[in-house]
Sequence to fold (1019 residues):
Amino acid sequence: MAIVTTPKKACAVNPLKMSQPIGGAFAFMGLRGAMPLLHGSQGCTSFGLTLFVRHFKEAVPLQTTAMSEVATVLGGYENVEQAILNIYNRTKPEIIGICSTGVTETKGDDVDGFIRLIREKHPQLARVPLVYVSTPDFKDAFQDGWEKTVVRMVEGLVETPAADVVRDPARVNVLPGCHLTPGDLDEIRTIVEDFGLKPSFLPDLAGSLDGHIPDEFTPTTIGGIGVDEIATMGQASWTIAIGAQMQRAAETMQARTGVPFRLFERLCGLLPNDQFMSFLSEISGRPVPLKYRRQRGQLADAMLDAHFHIGGRRLAIGAEPDLLFDLSSMLHEMGAQVAAAVTTTQSPVLERIKIDEVLISDLEDLEERAKARDCDLLITHSHGRQAAARLNIPFYRAGFPMFDRLGAGHLLSVGYRGTRNLIFDIANLVIADREQNHQPTLDSWRTTDAGLQVRPPQLH
Amino acid sequence: MSSLSATIQDVFNEPGCGKNANKTEAERKKGCTKQLQPGGAAGGCAFDGAKIALQPFTDVAHLVHGPIACEGNSWDNRGAASSGSSIWRTGFTTDMNETDIVFGGEKRLYKAIKEIIEKYDPPAIFVYQTCVPAMIGDDINAVCKAASQKLGKPVIPVNSPGFVGPKNLGNKLAGEALLDHVIGTVEPDYTTPYDINLIGEYNLSGELWQVKPLFDELGIRILSCISGDGKYREVASSHRARAAMMVCSKAMINVARKMEERYGIPFFEGSFYGIQDSSDSLREIARLLIERGAPAELMERTEAVIAREEARAWAAIEPYKPRFNGKKVLLITGGVKSWSVVAALQEAGLELVGTSVKKSTREDKERIKELMGQDAHMIDDMTPREMYKMLKDAKADIMLSGGKSQFVALKAAMPWLDINQERCHAYMGYVGMVKLVEEIDKALFNPMWQQLRTPAPWDNDGDSWQAKAMAQMDAQAAEIAADPVLAETNRRAKRICFCKQVDLGTIEDAIRRHGLASVDAVKQHTNASGGCGACKGRVEDILAAMPIPEPTTMLQAAE
Fold:
């Protein structure tokens, strides 16, 4: 069992963590016609916006209440009011999602109260849902912002069905964690639909940030789940939550609507997908389609081919808890050793990471451990690039942000097929690294003493 | 008055700024920047601006005092290049938590400074203030002072929390930090009559290095570049330069002007974007150095280099001219670099749409700057559909811009080239301009566009989203044309001043009601052109189009 520790240092160096307001805003981006709004100074929004634009290479809707110093001290009611009215008039949104930031939380703005007043004063807003989430920057991380926001969406937008409602046996809710890409969501959608089920994804980033060319230009999100569809999620027969971060949202859904849920902590790897397929088969009453039986065989074969390269690798990984758990577990199952693990925030899955200690810390600590423990595979988001260059080990980019490579939105890690591709990608990185940096030479094994030099095993 | 607000007022009073000269005292006090619009604002905060301006100092540790958002969401996101140290790309932050908010973050900040010195030992640390510690009253000046004394290293406070204003104010506050705590604190090892400072050049994509070889050839030494590829020791001793060039941006005009005032270093505003501007700038540097005592033969050598480089650049651009014949460019950018790029593109045989400027007189130059400034503002204010219509109406073959317009252009299958600060190519100096022309050629003639403009086999031409968008716009236009009341409402709702959000109707009413005859009078009554001033031309046009009635008769007529 892994111990979770937070190093006592005053200065975070090369942060792994991003702030929770933008995690919250990210969740709103999976809703159709949405305009996420950060209640803070304009930099809070512009930094987040730049990060999303560079990751997805897409126009991203994200607004700000543009708090000035004076407004911050006096309270932000007028800024919130003006921002909502401006957004309403200019962009005709279907929903406005508001996240607080460090600066307005320090002041203690009562945004729920503001919204009540604004609704009284401006009846024209009656049909626009305004969902508010408290997400101070000085607490928690990106993943927590997403988690809290989805919970608030369920609380605020899902209608409690009438007692006599007939549930649609084919309808399922899917609550995906923020570690899944739009490509992952599409893969899950295809799998679920292949069982004859009709999924509703909350949030659905595949509709908005998959890089498609929209039918119509809008300044809000160009796709995602509609508010009307969210309202009826209580009529589904099951909720599937993916990633431990979605447990609370699934519980809230169950409490409000009585829809039972099943949590899948992982969808990367052979056995997790076996469980997923069995579950879908069970709730749909259909056998697993031939397509997935073939894909399972392909994944098994990929594991056979790749284990020569991944087995024995010493992995250093920095990621938010659910992604960390998912990828490190899969690689552990492929014979890699998880030698250094750093994450951003607390989570129940951390103690099950296959390592002695998980740090809630930064990339400086990850780099130090990777060096000290002789790691030869690094997985983290794009900010790991400097560490990777210094360590000179193969670097697989995973998670958010990925700003220095293309196709971030389409990377796959779920399902048999996604796992197969991921395994090939990582194995190929390792092979390329061996070709470039570790070709045997005449003197590779020569020692000054007699015989061969035997390296003691590096077990941690 | 706290010292931060005093500094901000001082920055607003900047006499070196041309715009300021035309303002009343009350206007100056309000500041030189666009009022921020909740729900409609774009762009970074003052902290962002300060960090942008100073982070290119490569051997300095840049420590951000604040919660995780300020550094965690933004570190290592700039394309400046370094020829030496990489510590500037390391993200340092105090990552303040709830306890720090309650008990104050000063102790954590001090410890963080100490840790950085112990682990990384940089020649200096810049400490950036952010909103949350500013609100709870963390005194970074005091902490930095104490840390400097105890730890024996320059620890420089950069007091520019995000909520005091936008990015360009932050640039200037960063400049104030340099003036107060850094410049003039170290003597250079030696000086030469050929020492210059470059102010406001950030070496994005390594573009400074497109020009530096020419300086090296001429024996001109960049004593300090503020701040691209700069080093702490260099900026600290930059007060011994003989002349300075403020590169292509008013962002740090306060630094240039105050260094002239304090140390007698003359400066000029120049640019290395475009062939003509590059030559002008080299000449001006030589002239200033000679004025300050460098041998006169420097000018001859400079002219020789200019002649050679110009000839090479034109020869390199020449083959593109026939290819570019009849091709139209839509150039949308604010900022002063627009003009230089315009001139260069015209020289390469491209036609510019969206501007009516053909010749390169000084007045044209001013006019085009103004026009482009307006366009840049308008783009910020446009919905994506309007932006698409503008592209379509302009019949342009390629669009050059920065910012959010890129996705509309690209999704409309319109060739597009990045000329904003996140771009990956360097376009400075003679070689840079050739590079720009090359990139335009690659974008224009890529065979991909042909395929992308082909409708899917199951779509008709009219089904494409582009056609639909245009149809919608046309339908709206027809509806408006058929309804005179709606047409008038729409005409009057046209935004004239983007900073102060004033529409045409308001201005016309004010002109009629009060018999206004000048832009200033309109400004007093409606606030229009009271922001950046870029819409003055449009207000003039409105005034010119309206007869000037007697105010009293008009009032009676209205009643």
Summary: Confidence is low (pLDDT under 50) at residues 356-360, 553-559 of chain B.
